[in-house]
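I hope you will forgive my troubling you with a question about protein structure. The full record is reproduced below for your convenience:

——
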Amino acid sequence: MSNKSYIVFPLRRIAASIYDLLLLLGVWFAVGSIAVWINGGIIEEKWIGPFLIFVSSWGFFCYFWINGGKTLGMAVWKFEIYSLNKKKVTLKQVSIRFFLNTITVLLIGIPLLWIYFSKNNLSLSDYFSKTSYRKI
């Protein structure tokens, strides 16, 4: 297997992301409902909601990327992540990937342009996490 990445074009990334967002909404509702139930119906601290969303999203992606290399949205659009060092994808790699992808979303996808300038077609999150995409 080469280090050259399979380029997942923006339409596929967006479609897989929308699919995963719909799944994440269910996770967020479940986590939020449990948090409200545990606190007796009231959550007084405003930071708890965003924190729970962030942590549950991280857990969602880490679980699916480590156990199978893909989320359901990625499976539908037929691509997955793999480790460039030819070993199993690790928690450290997927955590780096998740945090850099979060920054990419906050920057409206601008860091994705690096794919077109990289000789191996790697995005910044691919490069720093030492992972990439491949067809399935």
Residues 1 and 86 are 8 Å apart (CA to CA).
